[in-house]
Amino acid sequence: MYLCRLKKKVMTYRNPEKTGKRKRSNPPPAENKTGNDSMRLNRFIAHCGICSRREADELISSGMIKVNGKVITDLGTKVSPRDDVRYKNKKLKSEKKVYILMNKPKGYVTTVEDPHADKTVLDLIGTDKCPERVYPVGRLDKSTTGVLLLTNDGDLAGKLTHPRYQRKKIYHVFLDKAVTRNDLFSLTEGIDLEGEIIAADAVSYADPDDKTQIGIEIHSGQNRVIRRLFEKLGYNVVKLDRVYFAGLTKKNLTRGKWRFLNDKEISMLRRGIF
Hints:
- Helix content is 20%, strand content 27%.
- It is α+β, with helices and mostly antiparallel strands.
- Strands 1, 8, 9, 10, 11, 14, 15, 16, 17 and 18 form a ten-stranded mixed β-sheet that branches.
- 33% of the residues are buried.
- About 8% of the residues have low confidence.
């Protein structure tokens, strides 16, 4: 189920501010080339798969990073591969970059360090097939299924989740009752969630004969945003499945299974061609 396939069957409501060709956000300024192999500390940390550059800045500012035995808090610090960089007293080193696409099943959490979780998405991968430690890009709650990307590429993860890059997400939503056309229109106009107006980019009936099924395209990264939007309109979400994320779909990937991305998919993610 994809919104582009539904246009010929049912009316699709679109956010008027999101119609037309979307302007791409300007990429971050390139790193200054200094003629050697040094790089900014936050970039080095991201390359090691610990977190994104933005999160690395927070680690540095809070004094959690040591370089050659000295606590570093200067965000402009540069390091080379020969420097001893440590986080929680563990030496950081660049890892082989791994990119995994999963069709997440119900009942698994994407918070990999939750001590109260019975099952996490990492349990589905196993260290025998993927020895590198990967992390989910963004979150899907325990009962939500569908497309999930996992990687140890902190730079890429930061870009895919940062609001300025507006990565497209499409969900197939099953509700407890038929959704009115007025409510579909309201979703594209915007719903007030705790003081912030959240609007879908496009929304339509997923099945013209079953108005309890909705396809919705959205860019917001708020926690449980789809469920909260429909709850605000008086509906309960019975089932929620993400069918598209940043150019990736779950085609030919059964529930609970995963695969490594191919070179073409990785290149597309890096270049932002969706």
